[in-house]
Write a structure and sequence with these properties.
single chain; about 350 residues; alpha/beta; 5-stranded mixed β-sheet; 12 helices; 7 strands
């Protein structure tokens, strides 16, 4: 007989155990006794005797692994891939329209309804793992999003942007965000059974506004520029002048034309902004499609900086302003991280004219 390895073992551990059994088969063939084999291979004598009996009955092949043990999959090969397609349709397509969460119980119920095969919750969970599914934190996507417009922007507008920058310009992605003294919660060490407590401002804490700009050109180091408003006694929102100063400062440092890509914020498309853009011959502006934040690498900057401000102690806006500047400045010296944000958009940066 061939041996079944425990289903809870990793593939690496199963492979290691099979090597040990095959080594035992070679020792048995050399005339070494089971107790000596157990001592040489550092296994229990009971295992060595069991292997020897199997080797006598079936030779070396009898000690080969037949894969993880456990119950066989209840779904046949023809049906095994169908649950994956049904899960990708979402819970609402199968009657659970109150939320958008797949649970083990729902998967088991769905399989029972469609294939008349009983599954426990744990069995359905193991089946999902076998099909390549894992529990994950879902990403949000606006219901107003126009998928056709996003696809058209990738296929038509992005090649035009690359063509405009191919003559020596820089592609600059811009986005804006806000930070409050009510920082996001993050994990920290605490005594078991006692939830750690983080003190925060009890009243409305105000906010600081940030505009960030990532400048990219193949063959050059990726740059990050930012502008922050919100110190005590200062206007806390960004105006058209603030945005154009950010872009103008980047242009002075880059010493090249700028192809600016940003969203459709009211300040970006106002009449005052259009006049400011028209007065700068070195500046070309393209709008991102609505509700498509995944196309803007600056979103990665906001995500990274927000995680670094988790569990922020209660303080003042001036202190928050200084912390945000510190986090953004540290990213300026990490161009590979910025390149990772750009790669996450899936936009090809080959600036050769399409």
């Amino acid at each position: 007989m061939r041996y079944a390895d425990g289903g809870g073992l990793t593939a690496k551990e199963r492979a290691r155990r099979e090597v040990v059994r095959l080594e035992a088969a070679e020792l048995f063939a050399a005339g070494i006794s089971a107790p000596e084999v157990a001592e040489l291979l550092r296994v229990a004598p009971k295992s060595a005797y069991q292997w020897r009996r199997a080797w006598i009955a079936g030779g070396t092949a009898a000690l080969a692994s037949r894969g993880p043990g456990g119950q066989r999959c209840k779904l046949g090969p023809a049906l095994r891939g169908k649950p994956a397609a049904m899960l990708e349709e979402g819970p609402a397509a199968h009657g659970w329209d109150q939320d958008q969460v797949w649970t083990g119980a729902r998967v088991a119920t769905l399989i029972g309804r469609r294939f008349h095969v009983p599954y426990s919750v744990s069995g359905a969970t193991r089946l999902m793992h076998r099909l390549g599914f894992t529990p994950q934190m879902a990403a949000r996507r606006a219901v107003e999003r126009n998928e056709a417009a996003v696809a058209a922007w990738r296929e038509e507008t992005w090649p035009e942007i690359r063509a405009r920058a191919a003559t020596g310009g820089w592609i600059c992605f811009e986005d804006e965000a806000g930070r409050h003294l009510w920082s996001p919660r993050g994990r920290t060490w605490g005594r078991r059974g006692h939830t750690p407590i983080v003190t925060v401002a009890g009243r409305s804490p105000g906010r600081v506004s940030i505009a960030g700009l990532i400048a990219v050109r193949p063959g050059a180091r990726t740059r990050l520029y930012s502008r922050i408003r919100g110190c005590t006694g200062e206007r806390r929102s960004l105006s058209e002048t603030d945005y154009i100063r950010l872009v103008g400062g980047a242009h002075q440092l880059l010493k090249a034309p700028v192809v600016l890509v940003w969203d459709r914020l009211n300040t970006h498309i106002s009449a005052a902004m259009k006049q400011l853009v028209a007065a700068r011959a070195w500046l070309t502006v393209f709008q991102l499609p609505s509700y498509a934040p995944e196309l803007n690498p600056v979103e990665g900057v906001w995500s990274q900086s927000e995680r670094s401000l988790a569990n922020l102690a209660a303080g003042t806006l001036d202190r928050l302003n200084a912390l945000v500047r510190n986090r953004l400045k540290s990213l300026q010296y990490r161009p590979t991280t910025l390149d990772g944000f750009i790669a996450g958009t899936g936009l090809a940066l080959d600036l050769s004219p399409p």
